[in-house]
Amino acid sequence: MQLVGRESLSEDQKLTLEMAKIIREDFLQQNAFTKYDYMCPLTKTCSMMSCIIHYFDGAKKLIKDSAGDKKVDWNLLSTSTRHLISQLSDLKQDLRPEMKQAEMEQHTRKLKEEIDNAFRQLSSN
After folding, report:
1. Which residues contact 34 (CB under 8 A, 6 or more apart)?
2. Per-residue pLDDT of the chain (125 residues; tens, 9 = 90+)
């Protein structure tokens, strides 16, 4: 990608690159000196990855299924869902280790619904 440039990538490859960045920088990196990150229960880990995968799967389907005048590219997708991408990045702080499993599941469910609604809206435009 560094040789040919980001512009030469297909739209789904641009999506994959962005999701890899979120996984690398927001999911995998840990800071032992922060209250929200010194420990990561399995519930939190699963909830975070579940949301990232949900966004990726929905975005990939939207890119693949769109066509013609309603073609969705990564630029439109990232601009329209910037707030959701930001929420995916912020999950590490939002899902605190002391939260109960039900709270985490509720937060995760709400974010997934927001993702679905945003993708539905983009596909209908």
Report:
1. none
2. 666 677 778 899 999 999 999 999 988 887 777 776 667 788 888 999 999 999 999 999 999 998 877 888 999 999 999 999 999 999 888 888 788 889 999 999 999 999 999 999 998 87
| 52, 88 contact by CB (below 8 A) | yes
Domain map (residue ranges) of the chain = 9-124
pTM: 0.89
CA distance 59 to 72: 9
Instruction: Please tell us whether the domain made up of 9-124 is placed in CATH 1.10.1140.10.
Output: yes
